[in-house]
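Hi everyone,

Forwarding the result from last night's run.
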Amino acid sequence: MRRWLAVAALALAGAALVACGSEPLGAHDPIFAAAPWTGPERLHYNLVQRDNLEGTCILETEPAVSPGVTELRRLCRDAGEGRYEDNGSARVDSATLRPISSLRVVLDLEEGDARQFATRYLPAEGTVVFESKQFEEGGADPTDALEAERRLPEPTDDVPEPAFYDDEELLWLVRGIPLREGFEGAFTNVNASTGRVFSAEVAVEAREQVEVPAGTFTAWKVRIETSTITQLIWIEEDAPHRVVRARIERLTYELAAIEQ
């Protein structure tokens, strides 16, 4: 599969699931304050690299798939003939955004191949289970399947409910943090594609004017850093604090249209 679709991944994908471990985890206070969306959303983005259109993404928010559960969906495909798709979803607690499960499916529509990455969170056991499956054209059963289990951050006296979030919800998570200049926080990120659990730091920087196909917005610049990579996300100042631009690895998301 091509790497052109840079999803909301805080780690470089590609390593074997069972070979990847987790770095030592600290217990971080939750950073998600409240959901700024008040109903279903459908936001359209262009994916660009050096002014070239590489693909498109739709981010969907469905706040009431079941009582207290919100589903977040990312639907991406390459430009042109649209041979490749990279789709992800996460089910989360509506109030806290704590993840329940997630699924990422990478498709080669021409060859009919698919790779699935799934997570199941087991809070009672303090673990997350990763599953990776490879499907070839016309096959109902996977030709390759891997499973691994990782520990989640453990509660402490100072942090009784440590924060952890699924990689698929990153572009929603930043919309609900305290958007004020100087805010800093940290959280544990869970990445199904690599089977890694690791810490990330987030900081809200100054407001900037951002011009994208959907218009010109005053937006907060948010920096997310790990030990290996830095991501930049611009979030509109006014509610519902939609992501206006996001620089994820080599690609940039630019807001192109808002469905009402």
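The first strand starts at residue 41 and ends at 49.

Cheers,
N.
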